[in-house]
Amino acid sequence: MTFAAAVLTLYPEMFPGPLGVSLAGRALAEGTWSLETVQIRDFATDKHRTVDDTPAGGGAGMVLRADVLAAAVDHARASRPSAPILAMTPRGTPLTQARIRSLASGPGVILLCGRFEGFDERLFAAREIEEVSLGDVVLSGGEPAALVVLDACIRLLPGVMGAPSSGTEESFENGLLEYPHYTRPATWEGRTIPQVLRSGDHAKIAAWRQRQSEIDTRLRRPDLWERHLGARVQPASGARRENEEPDQ
Ligand code: SAH
Predict the structure, then answer these.
(1) How far is the CA of 142 from the centre of ligand 1 (A)?
(2) Are 6 and 108 contacting, i.e. CB atoms less than 8 angstroms apart?
(3) d(CA 158, CA 27)
(4) Which CATH superfamily is domain 3-154 in?
(5) In the chain, what are the domain boundaries?
(6) Does the pTM exceed 0.85?
(7) Which of 69, 139, 147, 148 to mutate to test the pocket of ligand 1 (most atoms within 8 A of CB)?
(8) Ligand 1 atom nearest to 61, measured from its CA
(9) Ligand 1 site: residues with CB under 6 angstroms?
(10) What is the pLDDT of residues 114-157, one digit of tens each?
(11) For residues 177 and 171, is the Cβ–Cβ distance under 8 A?
């Protein structure tokens, strides 16, 4: 089954862009996924094809009009009734690998790219649209964010990646960062590869990797580590975890 993506944008020429090469490009050529771009400006109704206007209440920049965007969204939705619609916005829910995995197992996705100051908020009340963010950074437009969402989905589609296991051992798949990697030469600038990785003892290697994964997650991403512990311990209501201090 083809994963059908539609991107609503003022800059359709940005697509497929980097997704036209390498794994994603080959998968596109083979029909594993498809891509349609929709020019938002085609849904403007005035002779100047206006898509934006000044912010109500004043201030800098321009705001994308709800009526024009809704017409573009309705058009994309009509041919893809079951695909979720995601709007790219720093005000959205931060994307997770879990959300990407569920998108990739579905029929496809409709991605709405903002520009300028963003969207007229009424769009989100009037249509079923999930607001998603790439993280706490501000881009000049939603297009790079849409490329990221698609790239992350496409690599999970059946047949796109070489070894099936390379999709499930990655960072975040089990709530942890991945363990560090090494390759030849065995010694480089006086630094050697950890001995255990050259031992050939698969059980020991797996244990070392699991331990490194836990150490690195705890040090680099205390937020992920806390969530991981919470998911693992699942305290009964009112129960405390060992490492928590009682309330004063
Ligand atoms: N005024 C907005 C930023 C607008 S940036 C604010 O402060 O929240 C212009 C467009 O870039 C946005 O409409 C959105 O589509 C895209 N964009 C910027 N940062 C993003 C992020 N972190 N995640 C997803 N999309 C983003």
Answers:
(1) 6
(2) yes
(3) 10
(4) SPOUT methyltransferase, trefoil knot domain (3.40.1280.10)
(5) 3-154, 187-243
(6) yes
(7) 139
(8) 1
(9) 88-91, 113-115, 117-118, 133-135, 137-139, 141-142, 145
(10) 999 999 999 999 999 999 999 999 999 999 999 999 999 999 99
(11) yes
